[in-house]
Amino acid sequence: MSNSSSMAQFLLLALADRRELQLLHFWLFLAISLAALLANGLILSAVACDHHLHTPMGFFLLNLSLTDLGCICTTVPKAMHNSLHNTTTISYKGCAAQLFFFFFFLGAEFSLLTIMCYDRYVAICKPLHYGTLLGSRACAHMAAAAWATGFLNALLHTANTFSLPLCQGNALGQFFCELPPILKLSCSHSGYLREIGFIVVSAFLALGSFVFIVFSYVQIFRAVLRIPSQQGRHKAFSTCLPHLAVVSLFLSTIMFSHLKPPSISSPSLDLIVSVLYSVVPPSLNPLIYSLRNQELKDALRKLITGCFSEAINSPSSTCYGPH
C-alpha cells in the first residue's frame, strides 16, 4: 500500500492468540463496559433528579460522566467485536472516527478536570465569591469551552494525521486507533514534523493545566489546614480528595503510557498500559466520586430505592427515579 488513499483498513493488535483468551477478553470488556455504563448512567440520573446536586460541582460531574461514557464507547465496542469474531481489522474511516472521538472525549475530560479543580479552589479559598465566580452562566461557558477545546484538538490532530501519506504497512500494534502508531506508518517527513509540532503545542497546554491544578491544590491544602475544627477540615478534604484521586489516576496512566522508557516497552506491556488509561479511569471515576461524596451517595441511594419501590408497586411502569 503506497499511500493512505489506497488503504482500505488497518490491522489492530490482537488481545490474545488463543481463542479461549479472546473470548475471555470479550467477556471482561463486556463486564467493564456494562459497569461503566451503569455507574455513569446512575450519576447522570442522580445529578439530573436530585436538586441537592444542582450545583456547579454537580453540573461538571455530569459533564465528566458524559466524557467517561464517550471514552468507553469509542474504544471498547470495536475491541469486543474483534475478540468475539476473531478479527483484527478496522476500516480506514472507522479508524479516523475512533481517533477523533477518543481525542475529543479525552481532551474534554482533561479540561473539565481542570475546571473542577478551579471549582474546589474557589469553594475553599474564596467561599464568599463562590456564587459570583461560579454562577450558572459562568459554569455553562466553562463547560462549553471544555467541549470546544476537546473538539478543536481532536479535529486538528485527526485532520493532519489522516492527510499524511502512509507507506509503512497498515499494522498499528495497538488494540485501538491511537496517534503514535499511525504516525509510525507515515512516509512524509514534513507532515510528520508538523504533527509533532501540534503535539508539542498540546503538551504545553496540558502542562499549563497541570501546573494550575498543582498550584490550586497547594493553596487548597494550605487553606484547609488553617480551618480550626477537625470536622471542618474533614469535610473540606472529603470534597477535594475524590477530584484529586480522579486527576491522579487520569494523569498517571497517560504519562506512564507515553513517557515510559523504550527499554521496558513490549507489546504485552503496551497493551496493558493502553487499557489502563483508556478503559480503567472512565470505569473507576464514578466509584471514586460516589465513595467520598456524601450528597452523591444519598442521591444514588434515593434513586435506587425509588426505582425498586416503583418496580415493586407497579411492575409494568417505567422507573424515572425520585422527583
What are the SSEs and their pairings?
Layout: E1 9-11, H1 19-49, H2 56-85, E2 89-91, H3 92-125, H4 130-133, H5 136-161, H6 179-184, H7 189-225, H8 230-259, H9 267-278, H10 280-292, H11 294-313
Antiparallel strand pairs: 1-2
Helix pairs in contact: 1-2, 1-10, 1-11, 2-3, 2-10, 3-5, 3-7, 3-8, 5-7, 8-9, 8-10, 10-11
- Summed over residues and divided by their number, the pLDDT gives a mean of 81
Low-confidence stretches: 1-5, 316-323
The sequence of SSEs as H and E is EHHEHHHHHHHHH
Tally of contiguous helical segments: 11
Query: Beta-sheet strand percentage?
Result: under 5%
User: Per the principal axes of the C-alpha atoms, what is the gross shape?
Assistant: globular
* Structure class: mainly alpha
**In which order are the strands of the major sheet placed?**
1-2
Radius of gyration, in angstroms, nearest whole number: 22 Å
| Residues in helix, % | over 70%
Largest sheet: 2 strands, antiparallel
Q: What is the terminal separation in angstroms? A: 59 Å
Number of strands: 2
Give a structural overview.
The chain has 323 residues and is mainly alpha-helical. Helix content is 75%, strand content 2%. It is globular. Mean pLDDT is 81; it is low at 1-5 and 316-323.
Question: Could you give a quick summary of the protein structure above?
Answer:
It is built from 11 helices and 2 strands; from the N terminus they run βααβααααααααα. It has helices at about 20-50, 55-85, 90-125, 130-135, 135-160, 180-185, 190-225, 230-260, 265-280, 280-290, 295-315, and strands at about 10, 90.
